Every structure is written in C-alpha cells, then in structure tokens.
Amino acid sequence: MGALPIPIQEGRTLPDYLPARMVNEFAYCPRLFFYEWVEGVFEESTDTVEGAIQHRRVDAKATALPEAAAPGEEPPQSIHARSVTLTSERLRVIAKMDLVELEGGTATPVDYKHGHPREGENGLELWPSDRAQVAVQGMILRENGYGCEEGIVYYRKTGQRVRVALDAALVAETEGLIQRSWSAAEVGEIPPPLVDSPKCPGCSLVGICLPDETLASGAVGLESEPQQLGLFETPRRKPVKREVRALVTPRNERRPLYLNSQGVRVGKSGAVLQVKDSRAVLQEVRIGEICQVSLMGNVQISTQAVQALCEAEVPICYFSMGGWFYGITTGLNQKNVFLRRSQFRLSDQEYFTRAIARRLVEGKIRNQRTLLQRNHIEPRRETLAGLKEMGERAERAGSLGELLGIEGNAARMYFGDFAGMIKPDEDEAATEFRFDLEGRNRRPPRDPVNAMLSLGYSLLAKDLTVACFAVGFDPYVGFYHQPRFGRPALALDLMEPFRPLIVDSAVLTAINTGMVTARDFVRVGGSVALTAAGRKGFFRAYELRMDTLATHPLFDYRVTYRRMLEIQARLLARVIEGEIGEYPVFTTR
Questions:
Q1: Rounded-to-integer distance, Cα 544 and Cα 559, Å
Q2: In 270-349, which ranges are E strands?
Q3: What domains are there in the chain, each with its CATH number?
Q4: Distance CA 129, CA 112 (A)
Q5: CA-CA distance, 376 to 253, in Å (whole number)?
Q6: Could you give the CA distance from residue 498 to residue 363 in angstroms, rounded to a whole number?
Q7: CA atoms of 386 and 521, how far apart (whole Å)
Q8: Local confidence pLDDT in tens for the 589 residues of the chain
Q9: Separation CA 57–CA 35 (nearest Å)
C-alpha cells in the first residue's frame, strides 16, 4: 500500500496574517508549525503553562504605544509600552510584542522567553527561532514608521537580556522564513519529522507528532523478489530497521472515572467534580486528574459539569445499565477537517479498505493465537495450526467478504478453546452459573463469560472512539467495518487486534484472580448480567489491563495499552495522510 499524497489545497483558507510566534515555530520545526497553525493542534506542557502564566502577567500591564512621529515632529523621549499588537501588510504578519522600549524615535522590541540563552563561541546568543521572532517584531515596527536597530530577548530562567542587530542579513533571512512558512501552509502537506533531533524530547507535541515512529514506519524498502501486482496495488514493503527513541511518556497520569451507582448526580464546584446521592457528597475528583468520564445507566450530570469537562477536553461517555455504549459528548476539539476528508475519500476506495482490513484481521488472529499459547493449560495443536493458517489467509484475502469468513472461522477455533484458559471458581458450586464458554454469544449474552466479554468490548469501543476523536478522525467511517447508523465503525476497526490482548485478557484476569466471581451475576429473562459489584470488579480488571505496559513490536519501547490505542490511531492517520506506506498493526509475542 503506497504513500498517498493528499490534495487538500482546494478549499483551504488561512488567516490574513501570520503570527510572529508561528515564524518562531517554523524556524524551530516546520512540522510543529504545521500542527499548531494549519491543523490547530496544541498540547500543554510544563514549559508552555509556565510561559503562558508569565505572558499573562505582561499582558495585564498593557500600555499603548504612541504613533510614530511624523517628519519634523518631536519624537517621544522614553516610553515603555507593553502588550503591543501591530501588523505588516507587505509581509502579511502580525505580532503581539511583550514590550516595546521607545527612546526618541527608535523602538526596540523586547520578547520574554521562559528558558535560557544559547552559549555561542563569542558569548551569549539568541536561539535561531527566538532571533526570527524578535526580527519579525522589529520589521513590523519599521513598517509602522518607527526606527528599529535591534531586538532584545529576555530569558527568565537566567534573568539575562540578549541583543541582536536588525541588519540587512537578518532581515533577508527572516523574510525568507516568512515566505517559506506561508508556502508550507498553503501547500497543505505536513512537513516530515526531524531526524534524531534533540528538540523532540522536550516538545509538547511529541506524542502527537511521533517523529521516530513515523520515520521508522515510513523508512521502507521494496522486497528484493518481484511480485505480481493486482490493479491499484503496490509491492509489499518491509521496514528498514532504525532506532526509535522512547519519546512518548509510557503512562498518561490522568485516569478514567466510572460512575456505576444508579441514581447518583454529578455536579461541579470550582475545578472539582462532585458525585452526590440524595443525602451527601460521595466522591470528589479534580477535573485535571481525569481523562474521561463514563456514566453507566441512571446517572445524571449537570450542565455546568458538562461545560467544564468540554472546556477541559474530557469526553463524557454514556452506557446503558447493561453496559451498551451509546453516546459521547466532547468539546469542540475536532479541528483536523482535512484528515477526515481524506478518511472519507479513502473509505470508498476498495484497494485501500482491503489493505487496511487485511492487516487488522491478520493482527487479531495472531494475537488470539498468542493468548492461547500463553494461557491455555494445554493448547491443542490443531487449533494453533488452524489459527496460523487463518492468519496467513487473511494476508492474501481478495475481498472484505472473504475476510469476514476468515475472521469467523478463526473466532470459532479460538472461542472453542477459550474455556481452557479459565481456572475453576470455588463459588460455582453455590450458584447456577459456571465460567464455561462453548462459543461466543451476545445480544443478549447468555452466560457469565460472554456477559463480561460484551461489557469489555463496549468499554474498548468507547476508548477507541475517544482515541479517534483525539486524533481528528470521524469514528463512524471505517475501512473494514462498513458504515451503519450509530456504529463507530473506525473504532471497531482499530479495536480488532486489541480484543484478545485487552478485553479477553481482562476477562481471564477477573475470573482467575477472583475479582469477579459466580456470585456477581444475575439472570434477567434469557440473558445474564453483572451485578453492580460485579461491574465494579470488572472495571478494575479492565483498567488494570489498560494500565499494563506493553512493548511495541516495531518501535521496541514500552507504553500502557491506553497510550498504545492512541499511538495506533495516529499511525493510521499517518497512512491516510501519505506519510507511511503500510499500517503497522500492533501484535505481541
């Protein structure tokens, strides 16, 4: 599956002015510039938060800059103007200057930075990106009639001011940067990642950019032996080995909040969520400490709480009392419309949907086989051989219909031996329920194991829907699962390889460690459901699995499964955007 350029220039509109801060970003990293200015993607880090606080202090003391003196007029003697915004029509740039020092007719922009200056051979210097930003400010001052001979950057960490002369060479260099910034934005193709750059580890967008992962996945070479190609196919590629730095933090320190008690209400007090019943406050959780909220059944949430969660970009997920995932509320964070346009276009291309579906189904079958090998007391050779054959057939499948048949055959083999991974429960003798599994059944589930599998798959669909929204996808437009009203098809696509690794493993953990026992189930008509205590125990098993560190087979670093879901969604976006040629499905050994 070859790289696909995205013709997204058509219909693209950009702001009238390029901010000076974005020239700084382009000089630092063109890819960072594209994410922040073109796609509107931004993530906070400690440095960005501290920098924003410091700039708010400067902006709070805003003072006006007097107009430039006309010829023959007496210029102002000494004025310090703060938080000054000016534009240049010629360069189409705008700058909000922290401080302008006006002495006579000469204006000097002073930019405040959180860090420290660069140590050069001849003393302290400005970093190239800071030099570009303060140069833009000086050029704007000149175009507005002020004299400007130099710019100053004040570095807060060391308390030092560093000057740079606004000479002809710097002006020409900066004008070139401005022009290249506009060109990159107008072309609409995301610049490639920096290669082994020391800038990446400290970047707030490293978990979105995935520089080393993108390069490792895209650094491909054709297999040496020629292959017969079908219509619209490209030769199968194999990755060229390159080192991948562990730039992504292994864990997201924020945690999901599950509200399972029927009749409780969720409100807000300041930056804290309060969970109440009719008598008292049951629980308080800081909004900044949670990554999502799941409401199970009859749980009410106030408008104020919804607004606060949307503002903090914390999704709210809604489930039926039985665990059916049926809705999500998110803030207005769906900015990457061009990714979704490409997603919609490629979802109608049979060659593309078939290539993605092959990888997903083959990965799922391989992970099912691995789980049996790891956990079954005595895995049958015919089952392992059959699953291996199904995985190989999935790689060669000629249609989505054929893949569905292969997936179904593999599922029958896998679930036929699933019971061999379950340890006997002492409570089974005292109840009507048994942790047996003769096969998969659902809607409704008719035994305890299937009840937990159904609930777990709903939770995983929820987590991958959240990941799709975070990346900028439409979760309802898939490649393997075809669109159906109300079904998050893309989330279901992405979850296929993770079903055995996350949900099936969590079910086995819940049973084999006693987190859920046979006493935690009730029969409702022809279906079997978990009690409130049983759901709580299963949520604990599921989240324990999501917080488990796993090694990515391609990148060879360890992150939690929750983090892995977002990484895989972002890698699929790289395929759709044409940066890498083949989706690197997650499998485990």
A1: 14
A2: 272-276, 281-286, 290-296, 300-301, 316-319, 325-329
A3: 18-64+75-187 (3.90.320.10), 255-325 (3.100.10.20), 337-576 (1.20.120.920)
A4: 13
A5: 33
A6: 9
A7: 34
A8: 433 333 334 445 778 899 999 999 999 999 999 988 888 877 654 455 454 545 455 555 656 666 665 565 655 666 788 889 999 999 999 999 999 998 877 899 999 998 899 988 888 989 999 999 999 999 999 999 899 999 999 999 899 999 999 999 999 999 999 999 999 988 878 888 888 888 888 888 888 888 888 887 764 333 333 333 333 343 444 444 556 665 566 666 788 898 888 888 999 888 899 998 888 888 899 998 888 899 988 899 999 999 999 988 899 999 887 777 878 888 876 667 888 999 999 999 999 999 999 999 999 999 999 999 988 888 889 999 999 999 999 999 989 999 999 999 999 999 988 888 887 755 554 455 556 666 566 667 878 888 899 999 999 999 999 999 988 899 999 999 988 777 899 999 999 999 999 999 999 999 998 898 888 888 877 788 888 889 899 999 999 999 999 888 877 778 889 999 999 999 999 999 888 888 999 998 7
A9: 27
Q: Quickly count: other Cβ atoms within 10 Å of residue 303's Cβ.
A: 9
Structure tokens at 103: 């002495």
Contact indicator for 65, 76 with CB cutoff of 8 Å:
no
Cα separation of 55 and 15, whole Å? 23
Q: How far apart are CA 153 and CA 358, in angstroms?
A: 54
78-88 and 93-103 strand pairing = antiparallel
The phi and psi torsions of 173 (rounded to 5 degrees) equal: -60, -40
Contact between residue 36 and residue 25 where contact means Cβ atoms under 8 Å apart: yes
The two structure tokens encoding residue 266: 């969720």
Classify residue 195 by burial, with Cβ atoms within 10 Å: 0-12, 13-18, 19+: exposed
Rounded CA gap, 342 and 334, in Å?
A: 15
Unique residue bearing structure tokens 């969660």: 309
Q: Which two tokens stand for residue 77?
A: 């003697």
Nearest to 343 by CA among 577, 2, 566: 577
- Using DSSP bridges, classify how beta strands 527-530 and 549-551 pair: parallel, antiparallel or unpaired: unpaired
Give the tokens for residue 39. Answer: 């796609």
Cis peptide before 193 (omega within 30 of 0): no
Q: Residue 170 carries which side chain, given as an amino acid letter?
A: L
The pairing of strands 160-165 and 316-319 is unpaired
Taking the C-alpha atoms of residue 567 and residue 165, their distance in angstroms, rounded to an integer, is 44
Q: What's the half-sphere exposure (Cβ side, CA atoms, 13 Å) at 541?
A: 27
Strand partners, 300: 265
What token pair was written down for 83?
């938080």
